[in-house]
Structures are given as C-alpha cells and as structure tokens.
Design brief:
about 240 residues; 3 domains; 3-stranded mixed beta sheet; 4-stranded antiparallel beta sheet; alpha+beta
Length: about 240
C-alpha cells in the first residue's frame, strides 16, 4: 500500500514498529478466509482490512489486530521466515521429531550429536521448503500435540527439555506431515492460478475461472484434511489398544 492510503495514526504506528507500508496488503473487499493466502502470495506480512472492535485496520495474515496486540508482529515475522520443515525419526526411542531449519541434514546431524530427547539415531525421513517454515512447523506440532512427549536430555553439560518430539507410529506421523505439506502446495498452486485469472479482461469469465479455482482448492484441502483426521484417529486407536 502507498503511504497516502493510511491515516496519520496508522503511519505513526507502522513506523514505530519498523513495518514498511509495502509489506501491508490492501485487503479491503477480500474475504477474511482468503486474504491470508492472497497476502502471502504478494509477499506481505500484514493486511489492511475491516476494523476491529476498537477501529483498528492493521492485522496479521491470520486476522489478529497488531494495534491491539503488538506481540503478534514478532510472531508473524518469526513464523513467516523461509526455510525447511523436516520430519525425523528415532527407531530406538520410537519418537518422531518435527522442526524447522535452514539445512535439514545439518539439523538432524546436530540432533544425533547432542542425543536430542535421549536419542542418537535420528534419521531424516522427509522435508520440504516453505516460505513460512515456522507457521508450517506450528501446524504439524498442533496436529501431533496429543502425542507429544517431553524428554529431558543433556546438552553442553546442562539439562534440557525437549518439546518437539511425538510418540506415534512413524507412518502415521509421516502421513500427517505429508498431508500438511500437500496443503501448502495446494494453496501455492491456487494462488498462482488466481494471479493469472485476474489478467482475464472479461468480468464474467474471470469470475467463473476464479470460482472454479476456489472450489478446486477447497476440495483438495478437504481431502488432505481428511487424511490428517483419519491418521490422528488411527493413532488414538493404536494408543487405546496398547493401553488395554
């Protein structure tokens, strides 16, 4: 957005937080369900949308008001950093590890070197690049959270607590991880198609193409989400079976 499109108060706020006006997407007229991925496609960390309860219009891509809660700014920037999201597994401990890194192979080597969570046989099973690696990692962690296992281990002579390992079947964990990565790929592909569709001059034809893109995107995401739900349910079933 251009500086002239913001109010004086908004400009002062943006400057005080070190946010460039070019990193704010003008999302007026865009559905709340869509402006997150539209902003991402345009390389914007924040959006300008309908006012919150207190009349603020500056928000994160997830819809949180950054004027009401400035902590959301750091959260957005941290989660918006590009990098790799990886899935590693330890056979000896039966644990899955999901994390983010600039180099997945070096990171897994480091896990073994420091016997992360008490395991020194971590193997990289899968990884993918994401423009928002922190956000992607958080999604997988949230889905696997029922199976999280806290582990104490030693690093540099000090006791550490691991919070990013999960006790679940390797195939189940990997299926959930892969489904999340497919969701990301689906959204990226749809965003590219939307950008091309907006070049269509005929309004009716453009709306028809956009509707098809949105419908296809929703269908594919629903399929990936079903895969995730089915595997989570299966892991709960396995856990109940073991408890019996």
């Amino acid at each position: 957005m251009q500086e002239s499109e913001f109010s004086p108060e908004e400009l002062v706020f943006l400057q005080s937080q070190g946010i460039r006006t070019s990193s704010v997407l003008d999302a007026r007229g865009v559905k709340k369900a869509d402006y997150g991925w539209v902003a991402k496609d345009h390389g914007c960390d924040f959006v300008y949308h309908n006012p919150c309860t207190y009349g603020h219009r500056l928000k994160t891509r997830a819809g949180h008001c950054i004027q009401c809660d400035t902590s959301k700014i750091a959260f957005q920037k941290r989660h918006g950093a590009p990098g790799y999201v990886y899935f590693a597994y330890s056979d000896t401990e039966g644990l899955c590890k999901v994390g983010q890194a600039t180099d997945s192979f070096d990171r897994v080597d480091d896990l073994c070197k420091h016997s992360y969570a008490g395991a020194s046989d971590w193997v990289l099973i899968s990884h993918y690049f994401a423009e928002e690696s922190g956000a992607e990692e958080f999604k997988v962690h949230s889905l696997l959270s029922p199976f999280m296992e806290r582990r104490n281990y030693q690093k540099g002579g000090r006791q550490q607590l691991s919070r990013e390992v999960f006790r679940c079947d390797k195939d189940v964990g990997l299926a959930i991880f892969d489904a999340v990565s497919q969701c990301e790929a689906t959204k990226e592909a749809a965003a590219q198609r939307v950008e091309i569709a907006w070049l269509i001059d005929n309004p009716e034809e453009r709306e028809s193409v956009l509707s098809e893109i949105y419908a296809s995107r929703a269908t594919m995401l629903a399929e990936h989400e079903k895969t995730i739900a089915d595997n989570i349910a299966y892991q709960h079933w396995l856990n109940d079976l073991l408890d019996d």
